[in-house]
Design brief:
208 residues, D-Maltodextrin-Binding Protein, domain 2, 2 domains, 6-stranded mixed β-sheet, 5-stranded mixed β-sheet, 8 helices, binds adenosine-5'-triphosphate, binds 1-O-pyrophosphono-5-O-phosphono-alpha-D-ribofuranose, nucleotide-binding, amino-acid biosynthesis
Length: 208
């Protein structure tokens, strides 16, 4: 049996991924509460590596990991050459443009200041609308930006809407839905197809 390595995003996605792998009998070695970064499952010949979301794609792209579990937001933001092979169905949220008013408050003849942690997704979205923007890249707490006058609007993930509500912000436009995905290195997909296929089958059974 080929051994495979799987990169898992730390944080929200990692927590759910660990539960899912345990449910299909392949995750006993994963302990997200430890400080370990590699979890070896000798019996099933799986090595899990536990890394930051954006780095999951890097490890898979470079073939250090055959597979990765990461949010669709990260895949879209980090234009890469990996296969997206399965929608895991957890980590559901959506991208939205939000601001202090719940209606379109911007126009094409005026530069729009947009705060976000996702500059590539934001640029692509507004380019399509032919809206000129200035991107203000932040690393978190993006909702603060319009409140203190750093930006006109934000582009960010919304799940329950609690963060927007708590800060007096409204959704202006919903952009698209996000969930966790299984990604695969292109070469691994060819050479370790059977193992990868089996894993996906097990994940599918869990969903039904
Ligand atoms: N409400 C949510 N807010 C943000 N991300 C969510 C939410 N629900 C699900 N997700 C998914 O979880 C991922 C982010 O997880 P988490 O917030 O733990 O990481 P992070 O803190 O953004 O990462 P980093 O440590 O790099 O800052 C996103 O990429 C997204 O796919
Ligand atoms: O709609 P909600 O359920 O409130 O979730 C959305 C919020 O969660 C995320 O932030 P996170 O908790 O990751 O903190 P951050 O701002 O530091 O990224 C995201 O960036 C939103 O701020």
């Amino acid at each position: 049996m080929d051994s495979i390595s799987i990169a898992i995003s730390k944080g929200r996605i990692g927590k759910e991924a660990s539960t899912v792998f345990k449910k299909i009998g392949l995750g006993d070695s994963i302990d997200i509460n430890s400080r370990k970064l590699i979890f070896k499952d000798e019996k099933n010949k799986i090595n899990y590596i536990y890394v930051k979301p954006l780095d999951v794609v890097t490890y898979v792209q470079n073939g250090v990991a055959d597979l990765g579990v990461v949010g669709k937001d990260i895949i879209l933001e980090k234009d890469s050459d990996v296969y997206e092979i399965y929608d895991l169905g957890f980590g559901k949220c959506k991208f939205a443009v939000a601001g202090k008013k719940n209606k379109h408050t911007y126009s094409k003849d005026k530069l729009l200041k947009v705060a976000t942690s996702y500059p590539n997704i934001t640029k692509k979205y507004f380019d399509k609308k032919q809206q000129k923007i200035k991107i203000i890249k932040l690393n978190g707490s993006v909702e603060l930006a319009p409140l203190v006058g750093l930006s006109d609007v934000i582009v960010d993930l919304v799940e329950t809407g609690n963060t927007l509500k708590a800060n007096g912000l409204y959704i202006i436009e919903e952009m698209f839905d996000i969930s966790a995905r299984l990604i695969c290195n292109r070469i691994s997909y060819r050479f370790k197809y059977d193992r990868i296929f089996n894993l996906v089958e097990k994940l599918k059974e869990l969903k039904h």
